[in-house]
Specification:
Low-confidence stretches: none
Shape: globular
Helix content: 25-40%
Oligomer: single chain
Structural class: alpha/beta
Largest sheet: 7 strands, mixed
Mean pLDDT: 95
Strand content: 25-35%
Number of strands: 16
């Protein structure tokens, strides 16, 4: 692939502006970069938020899409990957909703037998579940115990649910829509709560003889869910929450640490982002890479697989509508991906 290269991208002129089709150009690559022809890019909860706020202060016009899959078409001088390799990865500056993306070699992995659409989901949602459940929560040490997963059918939640089942935990999952409840049944959740007609707290307390569950994972950023989750964690148990205080404030949610500790439980914080900026965690960044390699292995073994519930075409209006559907809660079941090109 010769450079410079001009291609189409779905860009946003500024916070709150609609998605537009624009031309982008790549003139050259740094030695640690690769140029990838994008097959799919997944949508995460942060994408619609970034479309409205540009919270990361990306240079305008900016292209979102932080997780993607595709084919390497050109490499820098560093080795390790070759033209033609089928890969997946992420970019901290977005750029996935485009025909091509430039990515750091260190952020790219071979996708193995994973189909391109599914491979594009092994970024933010998968890594958030993996970091929270396996690295921070060490749920693999709790085989046979109950865990309550709030939003168990969501992008993060459906990964967390499968991880809990994989490690032999008994899962209580909550959902309120027919599609979400169907997915929980598909994932063989042990005890399903339809919060549109059942009380989460009453159901869990009845299930556990009033003790509560030893583990809770809540990735919803919703205060109503936080209140329920804090009320059902058992004394001596652990509540795994996402996000720093600034992130909670963005969603109007409170820090429930004091409430959890009053119940004699411990609050744990899941955050894969800290492996890029916190020196304590940067030295452990290889754990996230190991987690993505594990995703490829689990797929091949049939143990954990992304559930894609919608594929959005490479079209500005379609992506804009997908963002609106996320904001309105219409697209919070499994994973939604954008097909940016034809996988090879």
């Amino acid at each position: 692939m010769n450079l410079p290269l001009t291609f189409d991208a779905l860009a946003i002129e500024g916070p709150g502006a609609p998605v537009r089709l624009q031309k982008r150009t790549v003139a050259s690559l740094e030695k640690d970069e690769v140029l990838i022809r994008v097959s799919y890019a997944s949508i995460n909860k942060m994408d619609p938020l970034m479309a409205r706020t540009n919270a990361f202060n990306l240079p305008s016009p900016y292209v979102l899409g932080f997780d993607f899959s595709g084919e390497i078409v050109r490499t820098g001088s560093d080795g390790g990957l070759s033209v033609g390799d089928q890969v997946f990865g992420g970019s901290v500056v977005g750029g996935g909703y485009a025909e091509y993306i430039v990515a750091k070699r260190a952020d790219i992995l071979p996708k193995g037998s994973v189909p391109a659409a599914e491979a594009s989901t092994y970024g933010i949602a998968y890594l958030t579940a993996y970091e929270s459940m396996v690295i921070t929560g060490e749920v693999q040490k709790h085989r046979g115990e109950w865990i309550y997963i709030a939003g168990a059918a969501g992008g993060i939640g459906h990964f967390a649910t499968q991880m809990a089942k994989l490690f032999g935990l008994k899962v209580v999952g909550s959902a309120g829509k027919a599609a979400s409840l169907d997915l929980l049944r598909q994932l063989k959740v042990d005890h399903i709560i339809d919060y549109s007609r059942q009380s989460v707290v009453e159901e869990i307390m009845n299930l556990t003889a009033g003790k509560g569950v030893p583990l809770v994972f809540d990735s919803t950023y919703a205060q109503s869910s936080y209140d329920q989750s804090a009320a059902v964690v058992a004394s001596g148990g652990e509540y795994i929450r996402l996000g720093l205080l600034e992130q909670l404030n963005q969603f109007g949610a409170k820090d429930m640490t004091a409430v959890v500790e009053d119940r004699g439980a411990k609050m744990l914080i899941g955050d894969p982002g800290r492996y890029r900026y916190d020196p304590q965690y940067m030295a452990q960044a290889s754990k996230l890479i190991d987690g993505q390699k594990q995703a490829v292995a689990w797929y091949a073994e049939g143990k954990l697989r992304p559930v894609i519930t919608q594929t959005v075409p490479f079209d500005a209006a379609a992506l804009q509508q997908a963002f609106e559907d996320f904001r309105n809660g219409k697209s919070n079941v499994g994973k939604v991906v954008v097909q940016c090109g034809q996988p090879r």
